[in-house]
Design brief:
- The structure holds two protein chains of two kinds.
- By secondary structure, chain A is α/β, with parallel strands linked by helices.
- Helices cover 38% and strands 18% of the residues of chain A.
- Chain A has a single domain, classed as Glutaredoxin (3-Layer(aba) Sandwich), CATH 3.40.30.
- Chain A is built from seven helices and seven strands.
- Chain A is elongated.
- Chain B is an alpha+beta fold.
- In chain B, the strands form two sheets. In chain B, strands 2, 3, 4, 5, 6 and 7 form a six-stranded antiparallel sheet that branches.
- In chain B, a hairpin with a 2-residue loop joins strand 4 and strand 5.
- Classes of the chains: A alpha/beta, B alpha+beta.
- The interface between A and B is large, with 42 and 47 residues.
Chain lengths: 210, 673
């Protein structure tokens, strides 16, 4: 065994392994989304799953994003065929329940799915706290430049996308984003608005709805 | 239930291969033959366990057992049975399981067939195979566990990736690729075995593994061609090769294995290139693992990339171990590899093989650099770049053209040394065929110098290879009075390896011709047509008959029926389609190809009007494309012929054979590596 040569050979492997190791810190497919900082594309989509009180919305009503201006909106794209959506479902639902009454709206957007299996999915998963709307032609998904499901958009009080999460959200991300966006809301919306806006967004016929 | 049992089987297999590898190496070092036998036994046991798990997975897929994560991920009640079964390799975890199964099958075959051979070559090779198996077993119980329980159990799944259920070739390409990739583990294991057992200077490891290498090489060749074909038939861009990182990853080991197939002959014949061959074989294996790493880790952007996950880190560690271990071993034993022969003359077959090796490895390095450059550029300069066709074409065309020429030179030259007269007689006549081909190419309008050279050298090499058949048959016909077919059969049967090689050459030439023609004479047009309107490309006219739609259980299909019109008569019809899958935002195009010996009419539906009044159709005319697929078949035929070793003729030794002593260097004591 020629150990000197062997040692030199081993060193030769180092750069290529280092290169691969470094490569792991990068996502080659990551195309930075141009959305954060810009106005969230508006939409009007029909509710197919009402959610639980106090967040419930009547099935068939249309939700327009623009009418939720002044409050924080968490938009979660999901589908019943998506496995990672199962992973984040409980986190999202429980977080929404905890934040009920605060100036933040949670809305599920169904992506490339039919409502029947989606409703069945919700039942299987033990319900969804917040309402979900259907995006039958995926126009909204396209406008948002959806990469895949699940994907979650955090929209500030001015209707701008503040943050986009590709893949399942965690409680930490939800807390960080929602808390900081709520803190940035004008005082009226934060304090007096809380009970008010909860009612506003969730009762039919008020400003959250058409 | 199935999932738990299968997972248990995989857990047991981890233990089994670990015990086998440890016991095997201790047994060899301590001279305990019984331990080595147990190690052999663990190879078989592992195969049984992995077979159980694989069988369980197929059962779970077929019975739509969505409590198993992999089934929930790729299964769907609406997917046809056939595509349900083949979705075994449609996503990451299943493909790793299938990989482990193929490795188990190869290992079992090679260990069983060589279990009685004296010496430590086979035991060390078995240990190596077990170590590789251990890696995949760990993946299967860890980051790539396909049997994770899902709760609550979904009622239905999304179905396999639509691209994978859109064409029958998807049933063929991945298993061929795995059979090729995984098969390369066997020669690698024996190369390692040779290094550890001290038999590295002999050619035995090459001889034992040659059939496996040929099998793996044949599968890999077929897989590459099938992958090209699939890409051509499914992706809708009318091409078959895009220098995508993962295409490159399958091509690089092929290049190195091809180099090895040639240089191994130089070692067996002349006792030269031993260290080089060791490097090639180890390199082939490293490249297969690198290819898998690139596909599975998501480190490079590719159409093939599987989802990312912790599995990439496992691969990184494995590739680091393999790379370092391989380099250390080869460098460590390099002292022992004394060349017993020498080059007699620059005008010999070995020189042609040497050049062939030089060009093939240069080819591999070019592809490697092009593939990894985006990563390197981002690491060093922080910029995102993509390396595409212009780079690869510019860099590889000179190599391809040179290799085509060498394919004619190699078979024509004798081993040892050729006289001037021999050279003239052998090398000059094929130039007539080269001239004819170049003239034809120029006459039909080829202007690119590389294209013209490619046609010329295809002619040159075809002439030279066919002449070898002709000379052999003529000799048999004259000497034994055999009829021509009998003479051909006996000629090939008498030296399968050599004549199988020439068949493979002819296959490669057909592929080269198909690629050259379809690249240089491709014509395409896109038009929006109302029913009854026509599109004409390069003298071919097609008419839109109608736009139609239909609902299938797992998808919706929109198609345009195109009629190919010749002299006012409809001679063929094509139905390019778009398939809409519920889980995909974009439709999956399904082009339709009308093939004839002269080339293809490639129809792709680009857009359509909802009411059926218009369709936008692309028509591509590509000459000689079917020759690529046919040539691929000929390459595989060559591999099949060549799998079986040369019939031993003890009475008449080969003219320039310098026998290499079985042991060329003093062997170290047993167990010393």
């Amino acid at each position: 065994m020629n150990w000197k040569r062997a040692g030199i050979a081993a060193l030769a492997a180092v750069p290529i392994i280092a290169l691969f190791a470094w490569g792991f810190t990068k996502d080659p497919n990551a195309i930075p989304s141009p959305l954060p900082g810009r106005a969230a594309p508006d939409f009007s989509l029909p509710v197919f799953s009402p959610g639980q009180p106090p967040m419930t919305l009547p099935v068939g009503d249309t939700v327009r994003l623009a009418s939720l201006r002044g409050q924080v909106v968490v938009l979660n794209f999901w589908a019943s065929w998506c496995l990672s959506c199962r992973d984040e479902h409980r986190t999202l639902s429980q977080f929404a329940k905890r934040y009920a009454g605060k100036p933040v709206h949670f809305l599920g957007v169904l992506y490339n799915d039919r409502t029947a299996p989606a409703l069945q999915w919700i039942e299987e998963m033990g319900g969804q706290e917040y309402p979900s709307v259907n995006d039958p032609d995926a126009h909204t998904a396209i406008n948002y430049g959806l990469y895949g499901v699940p994907e979650t958009y955090f929209i500030d009080g001015n209707g701008r996308v503040a943050y986009k999460q590709t893949g399942p959200v965690t409680d930490a991300i939800l807390t960080r984003e929602v808390d900081s966006l709520m803190a940035a809301l004008p005082p009226s919306a934060r304090t007096g608005g809380s009970a008010d806006s909860a009612a506003a967004g969730l009762a039919p016929g008020t400003k959250g709805l058409q | 239930m199935t999932g738990l049992l299968a997972h248990d089987a995989l857990m047991v297999s981890v233990v089994v291969v670990l015990v086998g590898a440890v016991l095997g190496s201790l047994g060899i070092r301590g001279g305990r033959a019984d331990w080595v036998q147990i190690a052999f036994g663990t190879v078989y046991a592992n195969f049984v366990l992995v077979s159980l798990a694989t069988g369980a997975m197929i059962y779970a897929l077929v019975t739509h057992d969505f409590s198993i994560s992999y089934v929930a991920q790729v299964g769907s009640r609406e997917t046809p049975l056939f595509y349900t079964v083949i979705s075994l390799w449609g996503a990451l975890e299943g493909s790793i399981l299938f990989w482990a199964w193929v490795l188990g099958a190869y290992s079992t075959a090679v260990v069983w067939l060589n279990r009685k051979r004296a010496g430590n070559l086979v035991p060390w090779a078995s240990v190596t195979l077990l170590v590789v198996a251990l890696f995949f077993a760990i993946l299967l119980v860890g980051p790539a566990n396909p049997f994770k329980p899902v709760f609550p159990v979904p009622a239905d799944g999304p179905g396999p990736n639509p691209l994978l259920q859109n064409h029958i070739l998807m049933a063929v390409h991945p298993p061929l690729l795995y059979l090729g990739y995984v098969g390369m583990t066997v020669p690698f294991a024996f190369a390692v075995g040779a290094m550890f057992s001290g038999e590295v200077a002999s050619d035995d490891w090459i001889r034992i593994t040659r059939p496996y290498l040929m099998v793996a090489w044949g599968f890999l060749s077929a897989a590459i061609i099938a992958g090209m074909w699939w890409s051509y038939e499914v992706l809708g861009w009318g091409g078959y090769w895009a220098w995508d990182p993962v295409e490159n990853a399958s091509f690089m080991p092929w290049l190195v294995a091809t180099a090895f197939l040639h240089s191994a002959m130089v070692q067996e014949r002349r006792g030269m290139l031993k260290l080089w061959n060791l490097n090639l074989m180890v390199g082939t294996f490293v490249l297969t693992i690198l290819g898998t790493f690139l596909t599975r880790s998501g480190i490079l952007s590719s159409v093939h990339a599987f989802t990312e996950g912790p599995i990439g880190y496992y691969f990184l560690v494995f590739i680091a171990i393999v790379l370092v271990a391989a380099l250390v071993m080869v460098a460590g034993v390099s002292d022992k590899l004394h060349t017993t022969g020498h080059f007699d003359s620059p005008t010999s077959r070995e020189t042609a093989f040497l050049l062939n090796n030089l060009f093939l490895t240069a080819f591999m390095f070019t592809v490697l650099v092009g593939t990894l450059y985006p990563l390197l550029a981002e690491a060093l300069r922080g910029v995102k770049v993509s390396v595409g066709e212009p780079f690869f074409n510019k860099m590889t065309l000179p190599l391809i053209v040179s290799l085509l020429f060498l394919m004619g030179v190699g078979p024509a030259l004798p081993w040892g040394s050729a006289t001037k007269a021999e050279m003239k007689a052998k090398l000059l006549p094929p130039f007539s065929a080269a001239a004819v081909m170049a003239a034809i190419a120029l006459a039909v309008g080829a202007r690119n110098p590389y294209a013209v050279l490619a046609y010329a050298f295809v002619g040159y090499a075809a002439f030279a290879n066919l002449r070898e058949y002709w000379i052999g048959m003529k000799a048999r016909h004259a000497a034994h009075g055999e009829s021509w077919p009998v003479a051909l059969a006996r000629l090939v049967g008498g030296n399968r390896r050599r004549y199988g090689g020439y068949v493979a050459h002819l296959g490669v030439l057909l592929v080269a011709l198909g690629i050259a023609a379809s690249e240089s004479f491709r014509a395409e047009r896109e038009a929006t047509l109302a029913p009854g309107q026509t599109i004409t490309v390069a003298g071919h006219t097609a008419r839109l008959k109608e736009v139609w739609g239909r609902e299938e259980p797992q998808r919706a299909v929109i198609g345009a029926t195109m009629e190919v019109v010749q002299n006012g008569k409809v001679v063929a019809t094509a139905d390019p389609r778009m398939n809409f899958y519920p889980t995909q935002s974009a439709p999956v195009p399904t082009p339709q190809v009308i093939s004839s010996i002269g080339g293809d009419l490639y129809f792709n539906l680009m857009a359509f009007d909802q009411n059926g009044s218009h369709a936008t159709v692309k028509l591509i005319v590509q000459p000689l494309v079917p020759w690529i697929w046919f040539g691929g078949g000929v390459v595989v035929l060559g591999a099949i012929i060549g799998i079986f070793p040369k019939r031993r003729r003890r009475t008449a030794p080969a003219a320039v054979r310098h026998p290499v002593p079985a042991v060329a260097v003093p062997l170290p004591s047993e167990g010393e590596a």
